[in-house]
Write a structure and sequence with these properties.
- The structure is a homodimer of 264-residue chains.
- Chain A is of the alpha/beta class.
- Chain A folds into two domains: 139 residues, 3-Layer(aba) Sandwich (Rossmann fold), CATH 3.40.50; 112 residues, Rossmann fold.
- Chain A is built from eleven helices and ten strands.
- Chain A has a six-stranded parallel sheet, with helices on both faces. A four-stranded parallel sheet of chain A has the order 6-5-7-8, with helices on both faces.
- In chain A, helix 9 links the parallel strand 7 and strand 8.
- In chain A, helix 1 crosses helix 10.
- Chain A is globular and about 50 Å long.
- Chain A starts with 5 loop residues before the first strand and ends in a 6-residue tail after the last strand.
- At the A-B interface, helix 7 and helix 8 of A face helix 7 and helix 8 of B.
Chain lengths: 264, 264
């Protein structure tokens, strides 16, 4: 059905940057977002657990008759994308490939850095996606597990966040990269702090807009859709912390609904 | 049964400090530990979710015929203790009361600081427990949400951890406290860093040993137990991160088993 919503999930609040980008270029689409705040973060968990949680999230969104699923979580995209594509009848779009494509297009030297959670970096998903597009690229990867807690604490431009960024990015700055992929949907929120550490010629890749373009390109019956563009935001655990950051990203009038993952 | 194990749960790895203390003073007891690593951390979640997870963990341990349950998680102890006591037939011991008791005994000025996760501090559980023992005490509380991720990253004596501690503890140092409760089982791992920030006369309260004493005091049939003192460590998600920290606390030969919370 053209009026069916597009489903989007993330482990927590970060995927709202992807929701916002989709809303911007597809304003008439109905969008339903699920943030798995009862089990966030995914980035330190094992592949099996990441896959299990991703499938459960997709099942929850399936109940809303979604026509397309966007996996707005880099960790889930890195481990569960193929399984989700096999298990579900609707198209599934991840964040890794669009981000990798944008990085390859943007890089002149083809020396590309990637930062993300422990699990995302360990999966090598970005490395593989970049090398499949540009076999002569050189990819440098670095896990930054403290970025998410620092961002969730709200220390976006704190001196401490800068020191942590310096510590994590030191290796990458020595590698003469000209492009850095922000391989976690939280990271755009500390873009300015990250920029301070890197050389001026390094381009930051925030895949939110690239993902939104991919969704638009792949959307069936797009022109037949005459709906209002309703946005619903669901979470598995409603906390003041999620609400605070959600409003920071989506605006003060954002409404958040709690749903149970257990219910059938 | 005297040979039945004592069950201990925590949201993750921190409660192993409590397991270790119990093992030390009750070497003949069989101990079974469960770390809910598939859903850690609890400290930023809502009260409802904390209670739900705590009850599920207790149910899991109940299947092992435990004779006593130790809630080695401060966040769970702060929200779920009364419910667990009502729901289950075995005695339930939390970490808040023993820690509060030790703090009151140790403090001369009765100006006591408490640090913990966002949820623990918000619950006011330590404040209430301290004031019920010593109505003339003055309690100063401060949530330190970044300590757990910093400890899990292994930055135990890093300059950055010191700066974060300074930022969090600044208010408390101005309050002339003489006792500080480490209201999270992770925190003893950065005891030295915390000590550097505080004045020399401040005593740190690590409730692990106090909890172990309480377990010993309340244990039925203790002298009848002739068992070997087997220790089992279960987790809901087996990750290299848990294994690394578990070995740091419990020794290199520590074995870890993964179990599913879903199975009946």
């Amino acid at each position: 059905m053209p009026e069916s919503p597009i489903g989007i999930f993330d482990s927590g609040v970060g995927g709202l940057t992807v929701l916002k980008a989709i809303k911007k270029i597809l304003p008439h689409e109905n969008l339903i977002y699920f943030g798995d705040t009862a089990r966030v973060p995914y980035g330190n968990r094992s592949p099996n657990t990441i896959i299990k949680y991703s499938v459960e999230n997709a099942r929850l969104l399936q109940k809303f008759n979604i026509k397309t699923l966007v996996v707005a979580c880099n960790t889930s995209s890195s481990y569960a994308l193929e399984i989700l594509k096999e298990e579900f009848p609707f198209p599934v779009i991840g964040v890794v490939k669009p981000g990798a494509k944008l990085a390859v297009e943007s890089s002149k030297s083809k020396r590309i850095g990637v930062i993300g959670t422990e699990a995302t970096i360990k999966s090598g998903a970005y490395r593989k996606a970049i090398l499949s597009l540009e076999p002569f690229a050189t990819v440098f990867e670095k896990a930054c597990p403290l970025f998410v807690p620092l961002i969730e604490e709200g220390w976006l431009s704190d001196k401490i966040t800068e020191l942590v960024a310096e510590k994590y990015l030191k290796e990458l700055t020595e590698k003469e990269i000209d492009t850095l992929v922000l391989g976690c949907t939280h990271y755009p929120l500390i873009k300015d702090t990250i920029k301070k550490i890197l050389k001026d010629n390094v381009t930051l890749i925030d895949s939110a807009m690239a993902v939104a373009e991919e969704v638009k390109r792949k959307l069936p019956h797009r022109k037949k859709n005459k709906s209002q563009g309703v946005v619903r935001i669901l979470v598995s655990d409603k906390t003041p912390r999620f609400e605070r950051i959600a409003k920071m990203i989506m605006g003060e009038d954002t409404l958040i609904e709690e749903v149970s993952l257990d219910s059938e």
